[in-house]
UniProtKB/TrEMBL annotation:
The keyword Signal applies. This is Lipocalin-like domain-containing protein. Residues 1-28 form the signal peptide. Keywords: Signal.
Amino acid sequence: MKRVATPFHYLASLLLFVALLMSGCSQPDKVGETNMLYGTDSKVWKTDKETTATGDKVAQTDADEDTELKFFANGTFNMTSPAQTMQGKYTFDQPGQKITLTPDGATTSMAFDVTNLTEKKITLKGTDGTTLMLEAE
């Protein structure tokens, strides 16, 4: 008995081919080694973009664009913006893909999932689902 290919079979084959092609070409996010965070001694990160928990892009103000987050090899950080300055300590759990920032004098800390860390980019996801993408300066 001869099988006749239907338009559905062609469509399914095409979709499968496209899915395989897309999965082979896409570069998944990765979390690199801890020293990618601070370089040899320290590294400055600047805001690239921010999204809400639903994935909508957040418009960056001039103050947002001027904000810098600097990580040091000794486990400290410094964040400066036109509105405020904050420094403190951080811990980076590379296998767990989490970073925790504890400002000096604070009783609470800020925890983020690190969904991407390369030499040039870092993506932090907050507990509320917002995402902050930073680029190395």
